[in-house]
Amino acid sequence: MPYMKYTIIIEKGCESGYIAYALALRGCVSQGASREQAFNNIKEAMEIHIEALTEDKISIPKEISSTILDLK
After folding, report:
1. What is the pTM of this model?
2. Domain range enclosing 14
């Protein structure tokens, strides 16, 4: 797999654990009991997601940019 860089979001779950998702890979979501587990699980989910896109000859989304906005 070629080198790719994606922004992921990891949030505390409503009831327990953590939810992780990749902004540029719609539908690619995972979870984990800890933040570290959620990180490892989303990495694996992203690899599988990209592999499936490749097998189906669908172009792999690239992250265009991300910006952090500070609100006061």
Report:
1. 0.84
2. 8-55
Q: Are 53 and 59 in contact, with CB atoms under 8 Å apart?
A: yes
CA distance 72 to 63: 27
21 CB-contact burial (10 Å; exposed 0-12 / middle 13-18 / buried 19+): buried
Residue 41 within a domain:
yes
3-state secondary structure of 21: strand
Measured between alpha carbons, how far is 25 from 20 in angstroms, rounded to an integer? 12
One pLDDT digit (tens) per residue for the chain, 72 residues: 678 899 999 999 998 899 999 999 999 999 999 999 999 999 999 999 999 999 999 999 988 877 777 888
Question: Residue 71 is which amino acid?
Answer: L
